[in-house]
Amino acid sequence: DVKVTQxxxxxxxxxxxxxxxxxxxDMDHENMFWYRQDPGLGLRLIYFxxxxxxxxxxxxxxxxxxxxxxKERFSLILESASTNQTSMYLCASSSxxxxxxxxxxxxxxxxxxx
Amino acid sequence: TQLLEQSPQFLSxxxxxxxxxxxxxxxxxxxxxxxxxxxxxxxxxxxxxxTGGEVKKLKRLTFQFGDARKDSxxxxxxxxxxxxxxxxxxxxxxQGAQKLVFGQGTRLTxxx
Lengths: 114, 112
Fold this sequence. Notes:
The complex is a heterodimer of chains A (114) and B (112). Chain A has one domain: Immunoglobulins (Immunoglobulin-like, Sandwich). Helices cover 0% and strands 56% of the residues of chain A. Chain A contains no helices and eleven strands. In chain A, strands 2, 4, 5, 6, 9, 10 and 11 form a seven-stranded mixed beta sheet that branches. Chain A is globular, with a radius of gyration of 13 Å. Chain B has 112 residues and is mainly β. Chain B has a single domain (4-107), classed as Sandwich (Immunoglobulin-like), CATH 2.60.40.10. Chain B has strands at residues 4-7, 10-14, 19-25, 31-37, 44-49, 55-58, 61-65, 71-76, 85-92, 106-111. Chain B has a five-stranded antiparallel beta sheet with strand order 1-3-8-7-6, with no helix packed on it. The mean pLDDT of chain B is 93. The A-B interface holds A 4, 31, 33, 35, 40-45, 48, 50, 58, 90, 92, 94, 96, 99-103, 105-108 and B 6, 9, 31, 33, 35, 40-45, 48, 50, 88, 96, 98-105.
């Protein structure tokens, strides 16, 4: 059974803290994605990685960075958390070799910044 | 930036009723995917449509890609409480593109 796991389901952090969100996939997928999901806005892409150490900015990268040191792991970093980063964060993976390039999602991390 | 609109944004109906939700844009797409997200979970792929006018059925769910490949619809027959969730459309403008742009979704509630 294919799986994308995220390190926490719920997280509460204070303004200014450095926050790490971890995502691991067991499908040997080349692509990994970080999205944030807010009511009425759907899923918005923060960053995309198509290979180890390779990354591309998505639509809303400001305030975020990412790290992909191993194929199976993709980390999202909030350098200095702010209240407007309170959101649901979803990680996904896919393979460019497997049309229709289905994205497999983790269960999400609900982050609250106070 | 492509404009993608899903309608309605919210829909609450009784078990057994039929419904249709829509995904519209002014852009032409090479393909389009529909995902369903249940509470507390990530989205899961339901279907991919590729050809203009294509119709795909998944049990009580019927998906259609518009002839001009600018829009899509999802029709559910005899809705059940298990159909409750957020339905997201995700088109691709370029064949083989790895990134998706998601609509804002239709939040569907089926009441027993």
